[in-house]
Amino acid sequence: MKEVRVRFAPSPTGALHIGGVRTALYNFLLARKHKGTMILRIEDTDQTRFVPGAEEYIIDSLKWAGIEIDEGVGKGGPHAPYRQSERKAIYQKYAQQLVSEGKAYYAFDTEAELEAMRERLKAQGSSDQQYSSGTRMQMKNSLTLSEVEVAEKINSGVHYVIRLKVPTNEEIQLTDLIRGEVRVNSSQIDDKVLMKSDGMPTYHLANVVDDYLMKISHVIRGEEWLPSAPLHVLLYKFLRWEKEMPQFAHLPLLLKADGNGKLSKRDADKAGFPIFPLNWTDPKTNEFSTGFRENGYLPEALLNFLAFLGWNPGTEQEIFSMQELVDTFSIERIGKAGAKFDIHKAQWFNQQYLRAKTDQQLSAFLFESLKKENINCPEEKAIKVCAALKERVTFPQDFWEHGKFFFNAPTQFDHPLIAKKWNNDVVKFLSAYQEELKAQPTLNVESAKMLLDHTAQATGIASGKIMQMLRVVLTGGAAGPDLMQTMDIIGKDEAINRISFALENFNVKIP
Ligand code: GLU
Predict the structure, then answer these.
(1) How far apart, in Å, are the Cα atoms of 288 and each of 50, 57, 201, 294?
(2) Which domains are delineated in the chain?
């Protein structure tokens, strides 16, 4: 196999979509697996779509995700520059070569003339209104004008483009590593613009020239580029680079969770989950979008989730470290079918990765929140809180969100439940339990439980009947971590205080 050199080639037109992160990941996995090179190329030749900050955003996102770049923008390398807007002269050269070899031509048609052509063809009932082998001879270009006229036009500085002279009725064939054989008749391809009037190349020319010059071995990109692939193959042929042509792998689309259509930002917004890796504020509209990072997704969990969107290892194993992904990944195991993007699965991965951490590691997340809340907490307590909540959290911030009551007495209670369950037995039990607690020098999980059993015996009331109310008294809510563990963490005095508060207030408020 020739040296694996892959590239992630985003256009800086806005925030990086999560599908782009998957594309980058698959490229990265292939590069690492074969000890190859991962390149970041910024395809910014469409100046009208350029968005300031997007390039930095892409770089920051990849860094956060742990997708390392070996060569490219922000990194440098033997094929620099890696930003296409800085490579104009290179594309110009190849476009000229194609013109002088009769494989491309100058076209001088104005917008109005192009529009008139489309109208004319429409009126003739033609289903195809493209600038192509069928229409090019009716247009204003270097194939229809004399050499002198062409030279005059170019010298006078009028705007012109360079178009590819696509052959008529020629079969173009390529083998996609995921989709298999792809055959297209050249008559279906229009005479694509290669160089625009602003002197910038179009995506097609720049992409092919750069993949060749940067010695790319595999082009792994989203399925939306599959229709462009035959045109690219034609360009490789016209430039006599067929032998160096990379292998293509077009990744399946990311679909909505129900499989009905492409996943869009609007779907994500509606369902309340992020679609961008990091927070992003669109500089044009000021629209703010939250990121996976800021929502509490761990990068390693997100990558594990993304790896499975289109690829599978062929085994039952789901949790893969980056190294395991590198070792197991192969293009052959990428499917053709669209991949359903189920955010619950991403959350499941996040839970698994959180659970795999030690309580001490998790306490760092809790400390982050506590710092923001200006709460001091001994490490031992933070670790215990994390241990108690570990099985119940999805995101790092949940340790605080679900565990506030470990630090502050609850101020909100489940009133409907209290109305239903607060009765004389509960009052009697909790009063007695409170007295037992007071008499106890210190409280821990065992003694809390022992006193509970003791109170049950002494009052003749089964503890099962009051447990839910005890939970509401101590935590405010009806669900949460182990109660005895909770008592151990908040401590004896606080437990007594909370019971007192309930005995004084719940009775009065509840009719
Ligand atoms: N610039 C293209 C994009 O934004 C890259 C497509 C490709 O990888 O060839 O997706």
Answers:
(1) 18, 14, 32, 13
(2) 5-72+207-255 (3.40.50.620), 88-205 (3.90.800.10), 268-355 (1.10.1160.10), 357-395 (no CATH), 409-505 (1.10.10.350)
Distance 42 CA to ligand 1 centre (A): 9
Q: Which two structure tokens, joined as six digits, stand for 319?
A: 């949790």
Determine how many CB atoms are found less than 10 A away from the CB of residue 385: 27
Q: Find the residues whose C-beta lies inside 6 A of ligand 1.
A: 9-11, 43, 207, 221, 225
Cα 10 to ligand 1 centre (Å): 5
Instruction: Among 6, 225, 235, 248, name the best residue to mutate to test ligand 1's pocket (greatest count of ligand atoms within 8 A of Cβ).
Output: 225
The answer to whether the CB of 248 falls within 8 A of the CB of 174 is yes
pLDDT for 449-481, tens place per residue? 999 999 999 999 999 999 999 999 999 999 999
189-227 pLDDT per residue, tens: 999 999 999 999 999 999 999 999 999 999 999 999 999
